[in-house]
Structure formats: structure tokens, C-alpha cells
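fyi for ur records
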Amino acid sequence: YQLASVYELLGRDNAAEESFKKAISLYPRYEEAMLALAVLYEKLGKNTGAEIQYKKALKIKPGDGVARLRLANMIAKAGRKSEALEIMSRAFLISPLSEEGLALSISYAGKPQTSTNAQTGGENENVPQPQDDKVLDNFKKRLTKVPSSKQINIEVDIKLAPKQITPKVEKSPDGDFIRPRGALASAVESLQKQENSAAFSRSFILAGVDDKERKEQLDKIFNDLENVLNQAAEKYEVDLSLRANAQISNNGILGEAAIGPEPIFSMGANAKAGYNPYMVGNDMGLWTPNKSWVVYINEIMPEILNRLANSPHDYIIAGLAAIELGKAADALEYFNRAAFLGANIKNVDEAKELLQIINLGKGTVYIVLGDEAAALKEYKTVLELNPSNEIAKANVEILEK
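which gave:
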């Protein structure tokens, strides 16, 4: 898997394909390798192969929102919009929260700067943090709230970009040395920085132990992270995303339990439910050079937004992408626009199918925003349209308990 990731970074796509396939043959449940291979196939225009790999990945980890989004987007582009809606609908399933449940997500640039999207059992923090080392310490302290007997999954994404790049000196036709200036220099520097950037990810799965062993587990992980950041900060601009969750035992209607971290986004002190987009990680316990899950979404966002025009289906895809990136307000705007356009569809069955997905999406946005009453209303609207809708029934049951 690591070799394939390096090959892809070097532009050796054929070699990357063979190494991803080898990784999967050695570890048939290696969902991250399936996702990476699917993205590679999509880039190479091998859409049939990409679809097969996306579906294999989702069979192993039904909650992988990245695979679900990219598959739905690819299928919608091929004109199979009804199938894309069915695939997307399962992305809006919510999960129950318990008193011992925990989900955290922070990201910051440089040597801890900002903490965002941090939630524990419904507690909301979305405020700037001081420019000091306490962000990791606070994150670690929150993990100690989980009983040591309970499994914890931790996922780290680190992106490194050179702090400063001097635009390359080039020769003019007459032999004089020239250096880009002004806007051109900025563009060249930005491109060179992008070319010299690298992303690494790693997942830690901490099995249930006693209190002493749990402390040792966390001490080792966070000491290692501090060392990585201290060393990297000397030469690089560092973007770090850190996510963790306590093991969720309820598989819900998605079937097989996902292996790895599933962050829960939820607001409000007494929240009953949260939203669980799966974050792509590496279950093998290795530092892996690759594209992070955010990149997998961001790289298809421009094409999604360029397609919007008057297509309610593409607005739903944009809404799903936004909600998984934590941009709830944007997601709600996309879903409302989809509903506005969907009202003009004359085919009753098609309009009904579309509205179910839109209301599911809006309901899940309200879960992220902490308005469970509004979410419940949206899910019940879905059931009015289709009393047998499994996602809506499951979500209503959670909220009405």
C-alpha cells in the first residue's frame, strides 16, 4: 500500500495499480487500498474498475462516506441518477449517542493554532485556541474520559508543505537569467509548494485494557505526535487533523460494522444522536504517504460545483460533500436549492424519490447543527412520502427513544 502510494505520487500509475492490487491480495479486507485503487482507476478513466472497487470498499465499511460520495458522483455523471440517489441515501444514517460515547475532531495549522469541530458526547467546541501546545494535551485528556475497558480508535492526517519556496530561475531565449515576478511569481511559488507537499496518515486502534495500560498507550501515541510536529515545524507548514472515537457497538441497518474510526458530529449538551461520516485511515498501524480523506473530497468538488446549473441531483451530491466536510450551512443551502429545483419535476415518482433524499439530507444537517426537533420533522416528512424508507425509520427511532 505504501509503495503504491509513492508510485502514484511519482506519476507511475501502472506500478501504483499493481501494488494496490498486491496489497489487497495480501489483506483482502484492506478497505483503504480498495478506495485508493478506485480513485486511481477513476483518474485513469477506468470507471468500471473504479465502481467495482468502490462497491467492495463499501461492503466492508458501509460508513465510508468518501467512497460513497465518489461512487455516487461517478455514477451520476454517467447518467445513472436514480442509482446515485439510492447510494447517497445511506450516507444520511445517524447513530445513537451514549454517556460513554466519545467523538473528537480537531485540526490546526502549524504548532497548534486552531481547534475546530471538537465534540465529546454532544459537547460543542468551535473556538480558536491559543498558539501553544495545549491542543494535543486537551485532546489527550478528553480520551481519558472513555473507560479503559472500551476500544478507542484514533486517526491522524498530517500534511507538510515547504515554508517558503523561491521561484526557480530560468533562462530567456537570449541566454539571460530571469526570475518570475509579481502575480506570476506567486503562482509559480504556489505550484512548486504544491508539488513539494506530502500527506501522511495513520490509525491507532487501542484495545480495551486496564487504566495503567491505557495511560501508557496514550502517552506513547501523543509523545510520538509531539516529536513529529516538533521536527516537521522546523522546515514545513504543518496541517494536522486528529480524530478519535470510542467503539460503536450498534451496526444499525448498514450491516457489517466498520473497522476503524467513525467520528460523530453532534451539538447540544443532551444530544441523542450524531452523524458518522467515516474518515479514511490506515488500519495497518503504519505512517502512510497518501492523499488524505479531505483531498479525496476536495479534488472532485470543483467538477461537482461546475455541474450544478439546474440539476437537483448534483445539488444533493454537493450537499453530501459539504456535510461530510463539516460545512453544515453550505450543505443546507445545497439541499434547499435541490428541493426548489425538484418541485419543477413533472414525473411524480421521480419527484417523490428526489424529495426523500433531500429531506434525509436536511434532517442529517440539522443533527450536525444540534436541532433534533427540526431533524425529526424532516425524517417524518420522508416517511409521509414513503412509509417503508429504512433510513428515515431508523433515524426516527433513535430520536424518539
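The chain is about 50% helix and 15% strand. thats all i got for now
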